[in-house]
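agent> Task received from the user: take the single chain below, predict its 3D structure, and emit structure tokens. No templates, no multimer pairing.
agent> Plan: (1) validate residues, (2) run structure prediction, (3) serialize to tokens, (4) report one or two observations.
agent> Step 1 OK, no nonstandard residues flagged.
tool_call: predict_structure(input=
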Amino acid sequence: QVQLQESGGGLVQPGGSLRLSCAASGFTVNGYAITWFRQAPGKEREGVLCMSSSDGNTYYTDSVKGRFTISRDTAKNTVYLQMNSLKPEDTAIYYCAREPNWRCSKPPRVEYWGQGTQVTVSS
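)
tool_result: status=success, residues=123
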């Protein structure tokens, strides 16, 4: 059974950092592309950043370039989203998702979703 479990969200001040985790079960993260999405209040869910199984990264949101990075720990079967220089407009529920195969699609395609974790950037 495929499951994705996000954690690491919380309240952070502008300019701060957070690292979100996406723990996977039922499959190995190095065999599939994993994408982080976010949904801000009153807005549609948007793709943020994807890592393919070949370690290629695809940014879907220009506003996070230079601030957000994605990485993978195969021993823990977990994918991370490191978020630096956070801004109030980064406030959203963040979701990780698995694509149907090894590469990052444009637009992203999702086969499985996590339940999400709230990130709030506020002073």
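agent> Step 4: summary for the user.
The longest strand covers residues 18-25.
agent> Done.
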